[in-house]
Amino acid sequence: MTHQIKSFKEYQKIYKNSVRHPEKFWAKQAKTFKWMKPWKKVLSGGFEEADVRWFEGGQLNITENCLDRHLKDKANDVALIWEPNDPSQAFKTYTYKELYSEVCRCANMLKSNGIKKGDRVCFYMPMVAELTIGVLACARIGAIHSVVFAGFSANALADRIKDCSCKMVICSDYNNRGNKSIAVKEIVDEAVAKDCSSVETVIVYKASNTKVKMKRGRDKWWHKEIEGKRKTCKPAKMNSEDVLFILYTSGSTGKPKGVVHTCGGYMVYTCYSFKNVFQYQQGDVYWCSADIGWITGHSYIIYGPLLAGAKTLMFEGVPTFPDAGRFWHICEKHKVNQFYTAPTAIRALMAQGDDWPSHYDLNSLKVLGTVGEPINEEAWNWYKEKIGKNTLPIVDTWFQTETAGIMISGLGGLSPQKATYAGLPLPGIQLCLLNSKGKEIKGNGKEGLLCIKYPWPSMIRTTYGDHARCKEVYFSSFKNKYFTGDGARRDKKGMYRIIGRVDDVINVSGHRMGTAEIENAINEHPNVIESAVVGYPHKIKGEGIYAYVILNKNKMDANIDTKKFNSSLLKVVTKEIGPIAKPDKIQIVTGLPKTRSGKIMRRILRKIAAGEAKNIGDVSTLLNPDVVKKVIRGASKILVNN
Ligand code: PRX
Fold it and tell me: Cα angle vertex 79, ends 74, 83, to 5°?
């Protein structure tokens, strides 16, 4: 298994070597896995054509490394713990042997339903164990999984199904989250009815006792289909660069992109980063509270931990059900050793008072992690003090759907820590800061655009069906660099602090969203003629969504009922994308500040949304400088939605 660093000194030495001899370094890590055929070349291609390949010529199956490889000495060790939404319901555990059998049974079920290597299978499921099983079953037979977060709307789901023409959708009947029960199957029916002609089969996992409609010939029950299936299934021989999965993420333009990851490099990097960042020791219980619908769940609930032979916990519910002590209750109940969550969750729980964690025994905890968005100092300190009792290390891990694995982070307990700083790059990761002209900013104590200078094994390979877009978005801004879209500061010791996105992407509760995508949704409202969306600082969510909308003339003139309008607008956004994209603030405006070439000046709108209208600066070069004053005036009257 990949090497585990044991001291900060060792990290420093390994880092230096990994940069000096990257191929040698990654080959050494890769050798610790089971390959069906050894690779011929460690690294081929380069950033120039967005054509990077790792371990070419090699063949493997990632599930053989997640499961079969552990059967010799870990068959009866727990691999997966599933904690249900309702704490009075029993939790489930799967040993490595049991998980292996379940994955094989499911793989055989996929095969018997016509799924072959290379076919795309869409998952639209709550956090049930069957999601992990299904994902691994796809990988077992070489089918490509595309997991769509179950909070997306039918429209958003349909777009994602169509973009990669999925042959099958796997869903549940209902999604149990807190007090709510969401009719998942109905959403899938609605989505598939929107021209998703590629879908031949819908497999439905039964998570409730409520009846759902099943379409004859298309819909099948998971429990019936899996019945009697063999508990073994030969792993498909996958080339290192065969696609493992597609995961959609938002960019600065309207349409989400299908980020493609491949088998070999992803396997090596997720295992290596998992073991080192969390300093996982055999027997530990590790819990990542993310949803598998995002990259964190893919890499650090499923693949990374299982590759490392860890015990990984997945949780169906929400942090505040039945009460705000739920996370800490789970930590106590399962004696969690490494706990990994998002700053939004920390802020939300912090707001519920210091009492909640004090009711639970948190002594098993060894490492605390955060991911997904910048963590503010107050939340970092609370996490450190109230959960970590001022002794536990916090790893603030920076990465992206495109990097697939953690790129910047402390190594639990080994590295220096500093509130709000993600820290140092992982071995093999070569970072740089650039100015807007692409010149590298050398030295420490500086700020710039965060880029990566050298390929790493788990990097994005393409955006599904549109390689030119991949090249354009990530590799064309600066020659021979991968551009992250984030701004960062490097302190005197070389530690990195992520400042946030520099493009038109906002991060709401750790969910990444393109402002253009939200604008497109808002513009679907029959009374809206134009809109502009920006992020603004939000106490709990990190960033909130602020929408400026121009209504068509008739509505503008008539004294519009803003309350009614707001709620109808929220409905439209929920229908187009999902509740996560609902604006927190809506301001009706008569015009938007624009440059002479007609581009919306978001910088100005961001300042107004943040309540910093005083610092707007010179607006005289705008096409319509008068509009700014009007927008500022209106900003004091807007309604807050959530
Ligand atoms: O802006 C950065 C922020 O989240 C973006 C990536 O979002 P996504 O692809 O959805 O992946 C999220 C989970 C890895 C980044 O470009 N981000 C992620 N982690 C951090 C962060 N910002 C600050 N600190 C972090 N630790």
Answer: 155
Sign, Cα dihedral of 454, 460, 463, 467: positive
CB count within 10 Å of CB 285 equals 19
| Burial per residue of 105-136, b for 16 or more beta-carbon CB atoms within 10 angstroms, e otherwise | bbbbbbbeeebeeebbbbbbbbbbbbbbbbbb
User: Which residues sit opposite 202 in a β-bridge?
Assistant: 169, 219
The predicted-structure confidence for 59-103, as pLDDT tens digits, reads as follows 999 999 999 999 999 999 999 999 999 999 999 999 999 999 999
End-to-end Cα, the chain, rounded Å? 47
Dihedral over Cα of 139, 145, 150, 151: its sign: positive
* pLDDT at residue 447 tops 60: yes
Residue 554 has a CB neighbour count (10 Å cut-off) of: 9
pLDDT digits (tens, 9 = 90+) for 30-39: 999 999 999 9
Nearest-CA residue for ligand 1 atom 13 is 372
Place of tokens 């610790």: 32
Mutate to test the pocket of ligand 1, among 288, 398, 421 (most ligand atoms within 8 A of CB): 398
The minimum-distance atom of ligand 1 relative to the CA of 294 is 10
Integer Cα distance of 162 and 191 in angstroms: 10
DSSP 70: G
Q: Is there an atom of ligand 1 within 6 Å of 489 CB?
A: no
Residue 292 backbone dihedrals phi, psi, to 5 degrees: -65, -15
Query: Which residue's CA is the nearest one to ligand 1's atom 26?
Result: 398
Q: Which residue type does 581 have?
A: A
Model pLDDT for residues 471-511, shown as the tens digit of each residue: 999 999 999 999 999 999 999 999 999 999 999 999 999 99
Residue 32: burial class (beta carbons within 10 Å; 0-12, 13-18, 19+): middle
d(CA 317, CA 175): 9
What single string gives the DSSP state of each residue in 524-568?
Answer: TSTTEEEEEEEEEEETTTEEEEEEEEEE-HHHHHS---HHHHHHH
Helix, strand, coil fractions of the chain, as percent rounded to 5: 35, 25, 40
Q: Are 625 and 595 in contact (CB under 8 A)?
A: no
Give the C-alpha distances (Å, rounded to integers) separating 398 from 5, 275, 296, 372, 406. Answer: 19, 16, 11, 7, 6
Q: Which residues touch 235 (CB under 8 Å, ≥6 apart)?
A: 61, 63, 64, 68, 140
Query: 227: which residues sit within 8 A by CB, 6+ positions away?
Result: none
Helix intervals (H) in 298-354: 304-307, 326-333, 343-350
The pick from 371, 431, 495, 504 for probing ligand 1's pocket by mutation, whose C-beta has the most ligand atoms within 8 angstroms, reads: 371
Tell me the H-state helices in 300-415: 304-307, 326-333, 343-350, 355-358, 377-382
Contacts of 618 (CB under 8 A, 6+ apart): none
Ligand 1 mean position, distance from CA 566 (Å): 30
Q: What is d(CA 205, CA 95) in angstroms, rounded to the nearest whole number?
A: 21
How big is the chain by its Cα radius of gyration, in Å?
24
Is the pTM higher than 0.85? The answer reads yes
Our answer on whether the CB atom of 544 is closer than 6 Å to any ligand 1 atom is: no
